[in-house]
Fold this protein.
Amino acid sequence: MIVRILVVSSILLAIVAVQEYSERRDALAELATVQARADSGARAKVADTLDTQIGEIARTIDWLDEFYRSRDGLQRPEGLWDRGHLDSVGIATWVIDVYVANRLRGRSEAEARKMIEDAIRQSDEWRSKHPTVPASR
């Protein structure tokens, strides 16, 4: 009698385990689908936002060019041009990685530009041109 109870209990546990495994597998598949849709939607939202921000981004690149030239900035006479080449890494880093990312996080234009200034002031190039000024202000 005990053996029958154990066999029936084992069968019921096996059925429950298989059902739980199946539900978990389905839930994970659904989660992956929802995440893919959310990622796609987020990318589309960022693209839509950037479409409306072209003027602002252009102003920020102009501002960055002036900051590069300025006495308080990197003191490059040619601004975003470095030895005859466009500083595309600088533009990508400061405008896309710092400025646009912070604007998308809800910071104002002024706050995002200040974050660029603060980050540039931590660079070796800025420190070499401002040896007597502390990096953080």
